[in-house]
Design a protein that fits this description.
It comes from Ruthia magnifica subsp. Calyptogena magnifica. This is DUF721 domain-containing protein. The longest helix has 23 residues. The chain is an alpha+beta fold. The chain has a domain of 60 residues: GMP Synthetase, Chain A, domain 3, CATH 3.30.300.180. The protein has a 3-stranded mixed β-sheet.
């Protein structure tokens, strides 16, 4: 006789401890990226938030040309970011390129 374990709904799965904190942070960043995509102009849409630390938001892209354009528009990006409620305390923006994509 075979016994089946109950399936876990991963959408509501929240582990405790540091892993739980990472899940919560990932959900927050995903929501921020959805809001950010609505605010960005089409040429900068591939930018995504990847880190918030010490009032600095780090945005990442896989395209060097987009990173170059973003570097030229840091003030505009900062103005867009602080329109998102979770990012009102951001005072600095950094742009990084993900070379693995």
């Amino acid at each position: 006789m075979c016994q089946y374990k109950a399936l876990t709904n991963l959408a509501s799965f929240m582990p405790s401890g540091q892993l739980g904190q990472l899940f919560a942070q990932a959900k927050t960043y995903n929501q921020i990226n959805i809001e950010l995509a609505k605010l960005l102009q089409d040429t900068l849409k591939p930018l995504e938030l990847c880190l918030i630390r010490d009032n600095t938001a780090t945005l990442i892209t896989h395209n060097q040309a987009i990173a170059f354009r973003a570097q030229k528009q840091l003030v505009t990006l900062l103005e867009l970011l602080i329109q998102i409620p979770a990012l009102v305390s951001i005072t600095h923006v950094e742009i990084k390129i993900n070379i693995n994509k």
